[in-house]
Specification:
The chain is of the alpha/beta class. It is built from 17 helices and 15 strands. It has helices at residues 7-12, 19-32, 44-51, 55-67, 91-97, 120-126, 143-152, 166-177, 192-200, 217-224, 247-259, 298-301, 314-325, 333-344, 346-372, 392-400, 433-444; strands at 71-73, 79-81, 105-106, 159-163, 183-188, 204-211, 214-215, 230-233, 265-270, 291-296, 308-312, 384-389, 404-405, 407-408, 420-425.
């Protein structure tokens, strides 16, 4: 056991004396490593007296920290920082990107097919640098790109900015909206790095179940009743499930949100962007003042662009812009000008559209071949297949023995799922579909005896 946390140290870390602010202050100490696992916290009455607040306020803060896994009560012995509470980093992300070796056919990566990406050289030749900024305080969005984004945005955005990819956008929006101990509604399953970053913020993830039309309204309603501050979801080409939101389902979700607390922020992660074969349906159509939409261009136009747009409710987007002023300031104007050219050049637009159709055909072909072998994958969009298996580890080992890499399904779960899965990047499968389907179908039924010890 480490030494008790000093009252003065804790009080100095708290600049907001609400329950949320107290939890956030303690959370910062824990995440930074200033307070070590095993340290005993001062008593509720002691801290309440030092801060000039009621014991109830401190108790609420302690409860929020306990729910997020940062601290634990040991009865009369006191309240302590939990072992592992300061751990951070993309642990789930590492699990889906770090395989046991080099595969003959690596379908674990989740990356687009380089052969289907548009020609950056053409866009570079067409793109005129023009009057790029020389002022650190200029608007973070290059004017030509701003005009293009405004035309294609799914609802009228109060504010807009450009960041370094979808995950950067999600992280920055979350850091504005979420505080330590807050509850956040997240699809189950979902993209593992989202769970990582929410964990680093000390948020409590509340799972929202999916079906073939998107997040389920009943699950969303139940989650809202928990007191969540945000709902983060993927409107199309869901990673990993391949689900795209239908218009009817979107209207149902918007109605549920409208009946809930008006403070809940809706965050849409449209990571697939133009690589998707389904039209975008945004909750911002119904709830523009509460929605922040993140639109990615890496899957469709090239990972090396590292660009995504964030637009929606001004209070959140403006806070993201202010936050970035203290770091990168803005994303490269050169890359923004290049993206603006790619979004308006007819040849590039045609190439991206053709790639979208090809991804859809590849996904459909592999899903159909698996269905013929008794393996139903579900979903209809994107570059992924969410394959149900008898045992995750056994399936991964069975596939690896044939030189095929797949992602484990468990890191995608925001709560326990009803069965094991693996994720396959179907967008990379351009040939030998039947052979791959045979291997996947066999792996899907591989018994747990294959599990590594």
């Amino acid at each position: 056991m480490t030494d008790p946390l000093d009252d003065d140290e804790l009080v100095a870390a708290i600049d907001d004396r609400s329950a949320r602010g107290i939890a956030a202050g303690v959370g910062r100490l824990v995440r930074s490593g200033a307070v070590l696992p095993g340290a005993r916290l001062p008593t509720v009455r002691s801290i309440a007296g030092r801060l000039g607040v009621s014991p109830t306020t401190v108790s609420e803060a302690w409860q929020a920290l306990a729910r997020s896994g940062a601290i634990e009560s040991r009865g009369r012995a006191g309240t302590f920082v939990r072992e592992g509470a300061a751990a951070h980093g993309p642990s789930r992300y590492r699990r889906i990107t770090r395989g046991p070796g080099v595969y003959t056919q690596d379908l674990s990566t989740g990356v687009p097919d380089p052969a289907l990406l548009p020609d950056l050289g053409r866009a570079q030749a067409l793109s005129a640098p023009g009057d790029l900024t020389t002022n650190y305080l200029d608007d973070p969005v290059d004017p030509p790109l701003a005009a293009v984004l405004a035309d294609r945005w799914p609802f009228p955005a109060e504010a807009m900015t450009v960041v370094d990819g979808c995950l950067d956008g999600l992280a920055r929006v979350a850091s504005v909206v979420v505080r330590y101990g807050d509850r956040v509604l997240v699809e189950n399953p979902t993209f593992p790095p989202l769970l990582d970053l929410l964990g680093d913020l000390g948020a409590e993830v509340v799972p929202v179940a999916l079906d073939g039309a998107g997040p389920r309204p009943d699950a969303l309603a139940a989650g809202l009743a928990s007191g969540a501050v945000a709902f983060v979801f993927q409107p199309r080409a869901h990673n990993p499930a391949g689900v795209s939101l239908s218009a009817d389902r979107a209207a149902q979700l918007a109605a549920v949100l409208a009946e809930g607390p008006p403070s809940v922020v809706v965050v849409e992660d449209d990571h697939a962007g133009d690589s998707s074969s389904c039209p975008l349906v945004s909750l911002g159509t119904w709830l523009p003042g509460r929605t922040v939409h993140v639109s990615g261009f890496s899957k469709s136009h090239g990972p090396d662009l590292r660009l995504a747009a964030v637009g929606g409710t001004g209070a959140v987007v403006d806070a993201v812009v202010s936050q970035r002023r203290l770091g990168p300031g803005w994303s490269s104007r050169l890359l923004q000008r290049l993206l603006a050219t790619m979004l308006t050049d007819p040849v590039t637009v045609h190439a991206v559209s053709a790639a979208s159709r090809e991804y859809g055909a590849r996904r459909s072909a592999l899903a159909s071949a698996l269905a013929d072998r008794g393996v139903a994958t579900g979903g209809e969009d994107g570059i992924y297949l969410w394959v149900p298996v008898l045992d995750e580890q056994a399936a991964l080992v069975a596939l690896a023995s044939q030189g095929i890499g797949a992602s484990p399904g468990s890191p995608f779960a925001s709560a326990p799922l009803d069965r094991d899965h693996v994720r396959i990047t179907a967008g990379l499968v351009a040939a030998d579909v039947d052979d791959l389907a045979e291997a996947l179908a066999a792996a899907a039924t591989a018994p747990p005896a294959y599990r590594r010890r």
